[in-house]
Amino acid sequence: MHLFNLDRDTAIGEVKRIENNIQSTFHNLGKINRDWSIWDDTYDFMVDQNPLYIEQNLEPETFANLNINYIIYIDSEKNLNCKYAMT
Question: In Å, what is the CA distance from 55 to each residue of 24, 42, 59?
Fold first, then answer.
């Protein structure tokens, strides 16, 4: 019975660690979203889809620095405006 409790405690600890990791990731993505959403360049890109924005802002270094693989632009009507993936 003691071994069962140890396994259970270990499992609970792992679940809590995973939950904390997910919450931290959501928090960091929220900060990135707020930061990028207020840029004039991002606003203009949502209106005109200028490819220069992608060249200047969506470089491999950007994805590495932000620790992301994808970026998705959704307008205020919740329509997908653009998606870009770093592969």
Answer: 29, 13, 7
Residue-level length of the chain: 87
> CA-CA distance, 3 to 12, in Å (whole number)?
14
Given a cut of 80, whether residue 26 has pLDDT beyond it is yes
Measured CA to CA, the distance from residue 77 to residue 63 in angstroms comes to 26
CA distance 30 to 72: 13
Q: Reduced to 3 states, what is the DSSP secondary structure of residue 82?
A: strand
pLDDT digits (tens, 9 = 90+) for 45-78: 999 989 999 999 988 998 898 888 989 999 889 9
Cα–Cα nearest to 36, from 51, 50, 57? 57
Contacts of 45 (CB under 8 A, 6+ apart): 53, 54, 73, 82
